[in-house]
Amino acid sequence: MSEYYVLLNQTQEGPYSKEDLRKLNLSRTTLIWNKELDDWTELKNVNDLKFLRNELPPEVNLNNKKSTSIKSKLANQIISIFRILIASFIIGTIFFIGFGFYNNLFSYKFFNKDINFSDTHEVLGYKPNQFQFNEVSSNGQYGRSSGFMEISDSGKEEVREIVVEELLEESFQFSLYTVIASFLILILIFYLIKGIRWVRKYSS
C-alpha cells in the first residue's frame, strides 16, 4: 500500500494512506510526496490520487476574481459618467431653448419678428449695407438731423439670415458652456456623494 506525505501549513505530515488523505483538508495545489515521486508534487498532478482530485472543489482564482471585480467597478464608473454626460447635454439643450427665446433667435427664425435697424446693430455690432438712411424734410430743409434707416423687403430677408446665424452661434456657445459647467458640477457632486458613503462605510 502506497503511503503519502503532505505539506500542510509549511509542515511535513504523514505518512497517510489514500483513505486517510480523504479526511485531511487538502486542496488541488497541496504538495504531495511518496517514494514513487521524484519531488514534492501538487495533488492535481499526482495520477494515483486522481479519485481524490475529482472529489475536491475547483480552484478559486483570486487574481481573476479580483480582476473581474475591478473591471465591473470600472464599467459601472463609465456608465455613471456617461449618464452624467447625457444629463449635461439635456441641461444644455434646455438652456439653448431658453436662451434662444431670450435673445429672439426663435422670434426672428420662426415667428418673422420685424427686423429693425437698432436691434440689428445691437446684435451684429455694425450697420449692414442693406440699411440706407432716408432723410426727411423739416420745414423744407433736409439734413442728417432728421430721417430713418430704410431697408427693402429683400434686404430684410438677407439681414434676417445674418442676424439668425449670429444669434444661433451665440446660443450654441452659451449652451456649450452650460454643458461643460453642468458636467463638472454633476461630476463633483457624484464623487462627493461617493466619498461621503465611503467614509460612512469604513469609519468606526
From TrEMBL:
Name all GYF domain ranges. 4-49
Q: What residue ranges are annotated as transmembrane?
A: 81-102, 174-193
For this UniProt record, give its keywords in alphabetical order, as a comma-separated list: Membrane, Transmembrane, Transmembrane helix
Cross-referenced InterPro entries: GYF_2
Q: Name one Pfam family in it.
A: GYF_2
- What name does UniProt use for this protein? DUF4339 domain-containing protein
Q: Which organism is it from?
A: Salinimicrobium gaetbulicola
Which lineage ranks, top first, belong to the organism behind this chain?
Answer: Bacteria, Pseudomonadati, Bacteroidota, Flavobacteriia, Flavobacteriales
